[in-house]
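Reopening: structure tokens for the adenosine monophosphate complex, inputs below.
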Amino acid sequence: MKRMLSGIKPTGQLTLGNYIGALRNFVKYQDEYEMYVFIANLHCITEYQEPLQLSKNLTDAIALYLACGLDPKKSTIFLQTDVKAHAELGYIMACNTYLGELNRMTQFKDKTAKNEKNLTAGLYTYPCLMAADILLYNADYVPVGDDQKQHVELTRDIAQRFNNKYGKTFKVPEPLIAKVGARIMSLSDPSKKMSKSDETNKGCIYLLDDLKVARKKIMSAVTDSVGIIQLDKENQPGLYNLIEIASSLTDRSMNDIVDEFAGQGYGKLKTYVADVVCAELEKIQNKYHDIINTHLLDEIMSEGAKKANLIAEQTLKNVENKIGLKIKY
Ligand code: AMP
Ligand code: TRP
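Re-run output (same inputs, fresh job):
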């Protein structure tokens, strides 16, 4: 069975973008692949997080993983800091990554372009830790949204370079990006990715949003003045995004949805999209509430950490030997 690994960085509440671009796919894949899914809590602190809020977000994220259908019998679910090998291999990966490579990472470039103050060294070297996350488990595939493709490609470069220098050590992983839903856009500005750092809060739907609030965000989503329901991503990006959201959640093709609503007003289509999204959120939220106050989470996470540690420690030991870090005594 091929192995798959992915992580989510819950700096805030998980969004519909996380669900469509990542989580939902993990659930689909867990039957066919040996699945490892982790909460990237070390990645969260590349930017300051209020500690109590961070801790709550981590717990919520685990409960939401389960509520979205990740099954601990099929998938190994764990917290990054429960497996200490991530931090050590992350450092080793940083020693095998060139400054030029990190300077080319668009996520980092975007942040520096905005002239944000107090950017940390952790944020800069984040792709090295991400490479370690993946390579520790010898994953064949890494299912991610479009924004993470560049980081997985860097992981491949680092793995290949390491293998050339020290002899075959790592499996070189491939990114797996869904054809539909890999980049869900903001509802208030369809030129931007739907993101938990949305300042206005209108463009982003959170998995735990009140259903009325979620519906309102969709009904007031920015569209265009063309007035025709069709697929024109360039000129009607807001409309395209709404159709893509509905298509991802229903597994209907985008064309099929266009055919149903062609010739009608945008309001009708928005109502349909809102119905689809709210039905999905309601299912997830009901399960979330069943899970959040049980001891189930502790058990699942400690079981996951045990399984993950077995593989990660073995990889790390092998890497330490290859590099010459070990001495015999
Ligand atoms: P993050 O929340 O940044 O840790 O992202 C976790 C996963 O969700 C990654 O695989 C991202 O690529 C994916 N993701 C985040 N935002 C979106 C979005 N707007 N559309 C599609 N996928 C997304
Ligand atoms: N960098 C990813 C994000 O922000 C989260 C992440 C960390 C990840 N480590 C990973 C995803 C390893 C896939 C594999 O979305």
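Strands lie at 3-8, 34-39, 75-79, 141-143, 174-176. The longest helix spans residues 296-323. Marking as resolved unless the reporter disagrees.
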